[in-house]
Amino acid sequence: METVFPGGVRSQHSASLEGFPEGVRSQHSASLEESKKKLNQQLKTKYLRLTKQVRPIPFIKDTRSIDKVFTEVGMNYKPVGEDEPWQRMNSHHEIPMGTIGQSRINIIEGDAGYGKSMLSLRLVHDWCTRDQVDQCSQLSNIDILIHLNLRQLGGVASIYEAIVKCLLPLDSSIKESDVKQLLQNEDIRTLLLFDAYDEYPDKDKEDNFVSHILQEKLLQHVKVLLTTRSSCIPEGCDGLTGRIKLTGFDGRAREDYVRKVVTKGDEEATQKILTQFNTNATLADICQAPLLFVIYAHSAHKAEINIDFRSVTEFFRCMVKCFHHHIRNKAQTKPTAEEQAQFQKFEDNHDTLDRLAYEALCAENQQLTWDRDICARKLGKEFYKRHTDIGILVEEEVINSNILSQPDPYKTEVRLFHKLACEWYAAHYFVKRLRSSPSSLPENLVDLMDPSELQHVYRFACGLDTIAARQVLDLLKQKRDCNSLAVLCALEQTDEAGDVLDTVRDLVSRDVIIGEEDSRLLQRTTIELVQRACQDEIPVSRLQLKMCFKRFDVTSSCIVLRSDFRLANLKTLQVLHIQAKYTDGEITRDELLGLLQTCEGLTELRIDSRSFLLPLSIPPETIPPSLKRRNINILYDRENGLVYRLSFDHGQWEIHDQRAYSSLDVVIDQSDSQLEQEWCLQELKMAAEADVRIRGLALSGSFNTVADNGQSIILTSGRTIPVLQTLQVLEIQDTNINQEMFIRLLSYVKECPQMTRLHFWKSQMPDVVDPEQIPSQLKQRGLKVLYDRGNGLVYRLSFDHGQWEIHDQHADQSFYVEIDQGQSQLEQEWCLQELKMAAEAGVTICALLLGVSFNTVADNGQSIILTSGLTIPGLPTLQELYIEETNINQEMFIKILSYVKECPQMTWLHFVDSQLPGVVDPEQIPSQLKQQGLEVLYDRRSGLVYRLSFDHGQWEIHDQRADSSLNVSIDQSDSQLEQEWCLQELKMAAEAGVKIHVLSLVDSFNTVADNSQLITLTSGRTIPVLQTLLQLDIWETDINQEMFIKILSYVKECPQMTTLLFWDSQMPDVVDPEQIPSQLEQRGLKVHSWKHGYLDFETGRWKLSDRVAKISSRIVVKGLYQRILSTNFGGSEETRQAQEVPPEVDG
């Protein structure tokens, strides 16, 4: 049985309420819940208005809802940790929201125009509508979502102030102190969604609330999603956050968007637009950025466009022209010649706007918005009006930080519709400066206008003017890590000027890098640069392929990348460096030789990857003489401590550049391929022969046995590891080792003179070793034999008496023990030995979990007896005891409490999925337990946890939260005690105001009392009216007309019920609509039958919904209520998400 172990973590009451009477705490909770409800109502009103005002491109005046235009963009996720690979995500629903096992802070990054803000709006919309649609998003678990556009928050010092001023209405009664109280409450799951960090005016100031939150100086428990450009990641977040990188639109996304938003299903128009991308690969790569694609798709749908684009500059110039022409063509009357000239003037002459944009980007703190009146005055009213009509300039209300204390602290500012547009106009002014007076440019220009953050300014400048391009490339040489941008800038020059070759020569004289994370446009451009150099006989000094190499195609003699781009005819390439850290694959002998022959000028090939395998050797006779004469340096770094070099003389690998500090670490896993294991064995042999330290050898599930003579280890694959003279540490994982095998291993270790540690991890070991059989040399050598069972403690074998002793406790790990019924006797004995050693050594045992292994307690209350017959004595250092899936009567319960009395440090006794007595005699509860501060908890897996009151022996709802809810199923086959527990749960939940999401009566419904106040079960027990019941399910019962009306009368008395569902029950074909209580239709009650459909209250007839019509009405497995809740006939999102698997149905 696999158990998710709680590890002793429990919810704590708010410190501010400790010691207060229960009534005070209840009033506080109710007040807090009311504040949260009011805040959410006002937030949703704001958010829904915001998400319904989306304009895909500037000249589209009619706004649309985000769910009507949003199309999934490519996304990769990288968990916390620099060594973790990027993982592809299929949907925005998979974006982590800081749940268990995930980072609390996640950054959504992407280049300009990659859809960060649109994604933010989609997440906001999903949160607002989570109760209306079936979603799998983690947003369904978020109580409060705060969405702030950081671009609008310059000068705002407090997040609470930002929320009140930006998100709440002017007449809101919610104060900053109320918001602060809600956000600081750890029981309320809050998500802060910060959009456009790269445009945040205060991001470079040390003292801003965003930095405080990211650095965990403020609201440390709150989850955070932050969007920003890839070049503007907040400092100090690299290794502490999860990262989501937006990778843009692929062909499928482009097609989806065109059909859904642009052509609205017009197939001919759709194909006309999509065909243009098939005929122009550069256009397709440019439009990997969703913003550029959206602009192009809408423009192409409105008018014929020349698609022969060769650069981003040509593309953007054409799109801006389309904006102007569109507004001109929409004029109701034909423009006069004078008006035409005016239109053209506004289109061609935008010097003032160019300067405004340039100065905004060059400012020490970028200011991308301007005061509306000042901007209109500078640009001229006609120019300003024309560009706001087009949509190139956009007006928006922002907070005026100078008048924050006033009731209406807003002002109207204007900005360009996207930062990319700001870079377009800034580039024009930049070109003018470069051409007219380059000496007047500030010396620190590349610092003021960071190329990594404003790459399009430099690219546009190169595309706008050839002379300026030369100066831009010179500027980029001053900045490190600008090679990729220099490549893009060079390819913006589409003419055939004579100095293009000089630019190419300069760029390939430095390292040329193609990375997996590069956009398709950048990859294509870099490939074109390299192949242009090779074509013109220009030496390419070094080409580095970072995580993007896929294979070498022998047939076509070209390198194939993971993006399926190809590099061929690399005859002037001198050094090729392939990094393939996370790439599994193999380069065969023919592929390796073919690669070397294709790169005629190659002097060095280096491959860094443990998982991308090269041949173990190459027969010398298969190596062409021409390759031998070239004396190519072929290096292979398997990233475990050594680098190998292939000798063409004998076709073998040798250790390259051995140094005094060289060492080797080797892991042999059971799942490794044959070639991988052979490589590991070859490495071990080479290292031992060269007297190189083998710092560690780990055998993960791959150890089988030791040869009888103790001279070799035999793996599960049959391969053998000889004695290794330089081996220092041997680690064996996930293996069962008996006494005989253990002694054999020690004999092998004896033959490895430098070994100082033998480490077993998560293996099964003998609990005692005969000390007489331990080789005496090992004691003299000082060998340590350690055993880490993976639960918090490490044990060391004592050579004197053959016993295991506590060696070390991991500082960052709690010690816990789990004993399961399915464990072997040896494993259970080990668990008991661990508990005994820990208790004797005074080591805290955080938790003991008995998973279906508990049997009884000895009559004297001194020990627990397991189902295996083994016993657990009283443990003085035990803090928490969990007992799972066990039936415990009154007598046994008191015995368990007597055992707990013998564990003085125990503060938590927790029963999970067990059957307990509904009431406990308080007189029999040991008085010491109250003084001990013990809490006895009961988790029935129904949604609530109960706590035993020592005063009156009753169970009470424990740690009730705002999101508490209950799901109860009463089956005819349930025991009397189980049914009584279900009724008790329903009563407690209703009295405490806890939502009862679903009550399911499986073959247990009998009738409804004449007064409609009670449901009577087949067992004779009754269910009263439940004030907090939301959904009632009735299974496999014959319901006639009279009974159906009675049920509706009962439902009428349950004011919160919104769904009545009949599963596989026989229902009346028609119901008299006159007898249906009118309140039910007004309440919005939905009545469904699995067989018949849904009930129309007006006609009293059943109607078959589209969804039901497609599914057979027969449930294959009877009683799978918890699984079938995921069907979207009703119930809440929380209910559906709580289920493990979908229902099994016919059809």
Structure description:
- The chain is an alpha/beta fold.
- The strands form eleven sheets. It has a seven-stranded mixed β-sheet. A seven-stranded mixed β-sheet has the order 11-12-16-18-20-21-22, with helices on one face. A seven-stranded mixed β-sheet has the order 23-24-28-29-30-31-32, covered by helices on one side.
- Helix 16 (419-436) crosses helix 19 (466-477) and helix 20 (483-491) runs antiparallel to helix 21.
- The relative contact order is 0.04.
- Residues 1-26 and 1106-1147 have low confidence and may be disordered.
Compact summary:
The chain has 1147 residues and is α/β, with parallel strands linked by helices.
Structural class: alpha/beta
Mean pLDDT across all residues, rounded? 84
β content, as a range? 15-25%
Number of strands: 52
Radius of gyration from the CA trace?
A: 36 Å
Output the number of helix runs: 36
Strand order of the largest sheet: 2-1-7-3-6-5-4
Low-confidence stretches: 1-26, 1106-1147
Termini separation comes to 33 Å
Largest sheet: 7 strands, mixed
Tell me, briefly, the overall form. flat
Helix content: 25-40%
